[in-house]
Amino acid sequence: MNLQKIGVKFFLEKGGELPLGSFIPVFHRWIQEDRLEGMLVDVTEYTHVFQGPGVLLIANEANYGVDETDGKRGFLYTQKRTPEKSQEDHLKTAFRRALKACSLLEKEPEAAGKVKFAVHHLQVFVNDRLEAPHGSQSLGQLEEALQPFLTWLYGGEKYLLLHEKDPQRRTGFEIKFEKSPSMETLLKQLGSN
Amino acid sequence: MTTQNKSWKTELQDAMPADWAREIDDFETQIGLNKQGKIEPRVFAETRLRRGAYGQRYDNGHRNDGKQIRHLKYPNDGLWKGPDTHWDAPGMQRIKFPWGGMTADQLDTMADLAEEYSDGIGHITTRQDFQLHFIHVEDTPDIMRRLAAVGITTREACGNSVRNVTACPLAGVCRTEAFDVTPYSKAIFKFMLGHPDAQDFGRKFKIAFSGCAHEACGLVNMHDMGFIGKKVTEGGKEKRVFDVYVGGGLGPVPYNAKLLFENHPVEEMLPVTQAVARVYGRLGEKKIRGMARIKFLVAKLGIEEFRKLVVAERKILTPDPRWTSLIDQYIKEEEKPAHKAENLRASSLPKGFLDWKKTNVYQQPQYGYVSVYIKVPLGDLTSTQLRVLAGMARKYVKETVRTTVEQNLLFRWVSEADLPALFQELQAIGLSASGANTISDITSCPGTDTCKLGISASRGLTRELSGRLDQMMADLPEEVKNLKIKISGCPNSCGQHHISDLGFYGVSRKSGSYTVPHFQLVLGGQWKNNGGAYGLAVAAVPSKRIPETVKRLTDKFVKERQKDEAFQSFVARIGKVEIKNLLSDLMVIPSHDAEPSLFTDWGDVREYTIADIGKGECAGEIVAPSEFSLTSAESKAFEAQVELDKKNYKAAVDLAYESMIFSAEGVVRSRNREWVGSPEATVAEFRKGFFDTGEFVKHVNNTQFAAYLFKAQENRLANPNPDEAHRRVEEAQLFLEAVHSYIANAAPSPAALLSK
Fold it and tell me: Between A5, A48, A81, which is nearest B136 by CB?
């Protein structure tokens, strides 16, 4: 299975009311201080747009951002270019980068105590309609790839998969765990400090 | 997800027109050859530009991160997609929508592409195009294939070619048009796309269509070539004709289009366009980009001589059956409504509906039908919004959607009875804001957000101003509501600042060792009459004080307006001196410590710089001799405008010349603080020490600004006409802005000069 160009979004548990503009200085600082993996290029903002991509940190092969699609704020990491790695690594890389950014964001002065991500509530999709056209076959294959990965990452905790029903949207799932390890534990499992 | 060797090329091979598919394959081959170093970066740049694949800010690998100039380490360091343009740097893909027409499938495709390759946003431009940002050049062939599969080509979206053909979005549903210009704009797009006579231009060539002269419509006056539809009666028969214009254009110095042919038969539209293209291709400037638009050729030859050349060229053209067949073909394509005409039922209308209807709904001449303007903030649509709009287009209007030059969307042929439901569906995706085409519906170019040439944050200012004005809308007097604001990030006028009531373009000013983002206020422009008059710069105000500038001007207008007086007339009556006095305190830059927010731009927390030059240590308030020269240059440039307003054209031209001399003196004194010389000696010193060495051009990225000075020195214009005087005054202002940029970028600091 050629699973690539992964998108991962962790929804917010707390912090939905914080103005989107608050994240602009944070992202600029991350570029100044090279805080994230990958080559960071620029910050762009769509605070004027209804339920849009919000504020983004554009990296060479992916976008990081505080996203508001469907009115659900969360941290979204979307790969646009294919990383040259194995399938498992694609998922691992995407989760590690997304979670690392969430973890950093919770500690930033603009967000500390105000923003908390729900690591038990997330969305995963394939950002590639050629490789993963919407349909039961793609959904089945994605589920097949996700299952062992999520079991490994979340230590076998039970979860619910809700597949994306809109055929125009990208193939993906909303995932809800009954219980979840902490963000630190997940990052440790992914090999990130 | 498992199929091997799956590609968009094979998936879509039957969905694309064969010739378009072949062109895209060729482009992909050129990408491969460029990667192998087999194509010169300069040649590849023009190749990709002609496919709409544009550069974007920071693609030279340098970005000010707020603390330092950061070298961006793109993966394939040493691989280029143009001169000084990194291969892996994000770029912009421009997508042409001729006459602004869009189908539902095209909206859906834009949604998919924005998600997969860009940042989730499709952006409507000021010329009815779409743009996607942060695109990798290697993704562009697949983007083009997916567009081609829904009938869109990006060919000639950029580069020295015939760009998107624009037309009044109301064409065919307008109450005052002579006739529907849509079929003609379709024919010219089809005819000129890739036409052999349009492949050797020195610069781009933009065409526009209007159905009536008095409205804004297609903004023919500011286009390289334009057509205004009319009807005349000949031998008792009504006949369609065009007034054909040529040589208009905005850019740093705007030119009014000249009437090439009056009452020209519509059947002659394509051959005359071909003849114009051949004359321009043969005689237009090729070497100096800043002088290569057709407006310079028309001004140089004069419209009479240009007309003679076109007539002669027309006579020797080999007849082409498409001259008439294309028009015949497209005239048969009639738009049909999705639903039958029904009146609006007045009961249980949704909240906010009536306010929205007042500003966003246009009554068509066809009974029972209206057109709906969808106000799109900054022209940005999310993928979700694009998909819902596609569904609405299928449901309500049989896909008769158009983009507008004010960066909105227009749904045509809406049955009045559908309006409440349509409004509610727009509400659900946050696109039901009222105020389309009012003061809060501001047009803006990308500016410093993504444009390589941006000086100030035009989008940031637009976001701020629109937000404030939207909140005040209910309390604004009617005469203020109807004003237009247009904003560009630099003098190049992509935001069309010259033709609005209140125009702004980005500039910068030096304050000690800091650089401060500013906007030049432009007044006197006219939106109506196809962009009938161009405004002039009045005063440079720090970016963060523009909202206060707008407030003071509109308050004064409301208070002192004479009965039914238009804003343009009001500005002319009270004069620029009074306006400048009104704003004089706003123009004073305080110290950094006193007001630090002034030293950052809208929506950007980084300390402001231009051209990514880092700020030095604050050297206190040392004033260099060059700064005195620039103050004098500012003063003379303003006096020139005052004389221009008084119609004292000779005085205006002389003052503009003096301003240029002071500006040049400022440059010379930046290196030689003792410099004193006659105007001739100053120009010679400037040329020798700063222009011939490439020093000045290197820091202002353009040869044309210095060319303005040399032209003024060579031709002092003893008897200038109004157009010539207007241009000379504009050129003096632009040369001054370029000198400000040079001083900010390249000149030694005052402290360094003093220590010498």
Answer: A81
CATH code given to domain B619-756: 1.20.120.330
Helices marked H in A75-135: 87-107
pTM: 0.89
Among 1.10.10.10, 3.20.20.150, 3.30.413.10, 3.40.190.10, name the CATH number for the domain at B173-331.
Answer: 3.30.413.10
- Residues in chain B within 8 Å Cβ distance of A39: 72-75
Domain with CATH 3.30.70.3340 in chain B: 353-428
Q: How far apart are CA B743 and CA B657, in angstroms?
A: 20
- Both tokens of residue B426? 């727009």
Q: Which of B374, B370, B356 is nearest to B412 (CA)?
A: B370
- Tokens linked to B309: 């050349």
CB pairs under 8 A between A and B: 127
Is residue A45 less than 8 Å (CB to CB) from chain B? yes
Distance from CA of A112 to the nearest CA of B (A): 19
CB contacts of A51 in chain B (<8 Å) are 382, 384, 429-430
SS3 B402: strand
Taking a C-beta distance cutoff of 8 angstroms, is the pair B274, B248 a contact? no
Burial degree of B197 (CB within 10 A; 0-12, 13-18, 19+): buried
Please answer whether residues B113 and B140 qualify as being in contact, where contact means their C-beta atoms are separated by less than 8 angstroms: no
Residue in the block written with tokens 């076109």: B310
Please answer yes or no on whether A41 and B112 come within 8 Å at the CB atom.
no
Say which CATH superfamily domain B439-617 falls into. Sulfite Reductase Hemoprotein, domain 1 (3.30.413.10)
| Closest chain A CA to residue B461 | A48
Summarize pLDDT for B702-746 with one digit per residue, the tens.
Answer: 778 999 999 999 998 999 999 999 999 999 999 998 998 888 777
Evaluate whether B108 touches B381 at the Cβ level (below 8 Å). Answer: no
Q: Does A69 touch chain B (CB under 8 A)?
A: yes
Contact criterion met (CB below 8 Å) for B364 and B335 = no
User: How do residues B505-544 score in pLDDT, each as one tens digit?
Assistant: 999 998 888 889 999 999 999 999 999 999 999 999 999 9
Q: Which residue does chain B place closest to A3, by CA atoms?
A: B1
As a whole number of angstroms, the distance between CA B16 and CA B154 comes to 13
Question: pLDDT, tens digit, for every residue of B24-33?
Answer: 999 999 999 9
Q: Which CATH number fits domain B353-428: 3.40.50.150, 2.170.190.11, 3.40.50.980, 3.30.70.3340?
A: 3.30.70.3340
Domain with CATH 3.30.413.10 in chain B: 173-331, 439-617
Burial label, B132 (beta-carbon count in 10 A; 0-12, 13-18, 19+): buried
Helix (H, G, I), strand (E, B) or coil at B192: helix
Element (H, E) at A56: strand A55-59
DSSP letter assigned to residue B256: -
d(C-alpha B226, C-alpha B223), whole Å: 6
Whole-angstrom distance, CA of residue B656 vs CA of residue B636:
7
Write out pLDDT tens, residues B186-211. 999 999 999 999 988 999 999 999 99
The reported pLDDT for the residue numbered B743 is: 84
User: CA B54 → CA B7, B125, B171, B436, distances in Å?
Assistant: 24, 14, 30, 30
Instruction: Please state, as a whole number, how many other Cβ atoms lie within 10 Å of the Cβ of residue B621.
Output: 9
Q: Which helix (H) or strand (E) holds B243?
A: strand B237-246
Q: Locate CATH 1.20.120.330 in chain B.
A: 619-756
Of B378, B467, B605, the CB nearest to A25: B605
Q: A41 vs B72: CB contact, 8 Å cut-off?
A: yes
The CATH T-level fold of domain B8-148 is Alpha-Beta Plaits (3.30.70)
Per CB-CB distance under 8 Å, the chain A contacts of B63 are: 41-42
Q: Taking a C-beta distance cutoff of 8 angstroms, is the pair B480, B439 a contact?
A: yes
